[in-house]
Each structure stands twice: as structure tokens, then as C-alpha cells.
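Session log. Operator J.P. requested a structure for one protein chain; no other inputs attached. Running the standard single-chain path with C-alpha cell output.
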Amino acid sequence: MRTLVAIGFLLLLPSCVNKKKFTALETASKAQAERDKGQISSLQARLQDMDLLLEEMLRAIAALKNDTADKAMNLAKSELAAAELNRKLSECEAEQRIRLQDFNQEISRKNQTLQQKEIALNQALADAEIQKNNAIDVQKRAAAYAQELQKTTARVRLLEQELKRKDSAALALQRSIRDALTGFSNNGLNVETRNGKVYVSMSEQLLFKTGSTSVDPKGKNALMALAAALKNQPEIMINVEGHTDDQPIRGGTVKDNWDLSVLRATSIVRLLTEEGQLEPSRVQASGRSQYLPVDAATTPEARAKNRRTEIILTPRLDKILNLIQP
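Structure written below.
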């Protein structure tokens, strides 16, 4: 391009340009043309290189576009997969929240159950402690009861011994009284033992005239013999009981059967204490009137049996009472 411009320029030059200059210009033009040709060649080579580079770049761009499209597709797939994962994650989270809520509720129930069991256990422990203390108290009481039982057993044995001794004493007393009153046995006198006591029953025939409160001599002798037998036995208590039949009293100074039974008992007590010299503190008088008959019949024989005086001899029970008392 530059060569054509130079030739046109030379053609336009005035004809006054000489040949030498023309030659110089032509040479310069040729040199310039050669340089331009070299540059063009160089440019063409570079252009080819650039074309090759451009082709490579276009191929690379195409590859990049293809790769970008693949990656965009993969990205879309990834986004879809991510969305699906997010959905599943949301479902999992919702499920986990439900499970966590259920778990928390179950934990709460178990905690409540545990608290109830703990309360029950504490109560059971408290009850066990109370039972333990009660057991200890029971053991202490049992030991005390056992000790008391031993004492009671010992007292019972002593009481049994004392009762046997009392019974033996009552039998011995019965024998001694019976021996002392042997001579009066045919006169309505009877000696027997009942409930550990000696009963000396004397009929009205032996002691009194009908309706009288004064003791007959025969009866006085029997009473003195009884007093003599009892004088040296201070442990024997004496109760004189007067008994009558059911026939009313008519006339005289005695008001009724009550009065008669008591007055007869006191008459006997005076004889036993004053003439028989028995200690008055050992003797007492009582009247039972008609209300404790030995025979409930209304025959003369039954009424005769009921008109009696019973002298009840009782050994002192001081030792026995001391043994009975705790």
C-alpha cells in the first residue's frame, strides 16, 4: 500500500526532478517497499499466529461455553438436588421436632414417675424407719414383758405355793377344829372346807332356844372348845354369820329375822372374845336372816337346817394379796 502511494507521489513530482534523484527515490522506494514487504510478511505471519490463537481461543471459548452449559446444567441439577435435600431436611427437622417433643414429654412423664417413686421410696424409708423404731420399741417392750413375765411367773409360783400352803393349812385347820369339836358332832355341828375356808356350822338346837339370842351352856362349851383351838392360830380370821328360817318373829324384843340373825352372831362374838379370849380384831359378826338357806324347802326339817350359825374361818390373805399385787 505504501509502495503505490510512493509511486503515485513520484508521478506527481514535477518533471524538473532529475534522474539521479529519481533513481535515489526509486531506490529508497524499493528499499521501503522491501521493508514494507518484510513488515507485511511479518504482520501476515503474526496475523496467522493470531488467527491460530483466535481459533484456539474460539475453541477454548466454545469448550468453556460447553463446560459452562454442563456446569449450568449440573448446577441446575445440583440446585434441584439441594432443593430436594432442603425439603427432606425440613421434613427431617419437622420429624425431629415432633420426636423431640415426644421425647421431652416422655422425659417429663418419666421424671414425674421418678419423683413419685422417689416420694414413695422416701415414704417407704420413713415407714421403714418408723417400723424399725417400732420394732425396737416392740423388742424393748417384749424384753420388759419377758422380764415382767418372769417376775409374774415367779409370783404365780409363789402364789401357787402359798395357795397350796393355805389349802393345806385349811385342811389342817379343819382337822384340828373337827378334833376339838368331836364331842359335839351329834348335836347339829358340821365342819367342812369350801373355797379354802373352813365352815363350822352349828344348829340352833346346839346354841339357842327358839327365838332367843342367849347361848345355851351346851353351845357355850362348844364355842369355848372352838376358841381354844383358834387361840394359837392368829393368822385365822373369824366371821360369825347368823341364819334364820323364813318364819316371821312374833312378839318379844326381837323385831324380825334380820335382827335375830345379827343379835345371835354378836352374842357368839362376845363369848369368843371375852371368855374365849380371842383377839377382837380377828372376829366379826354378821346376820344373813333367811336369805341364804341351805335347804329351800318349807318343811320343818328344812327350816331346822336353815336355823343355824356359821363360823367361817379364813386364813389371812396378806401374803397372797402381796403376791397378786404388781
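Operator note: The first strand starts at residue 189 and ends at 194.
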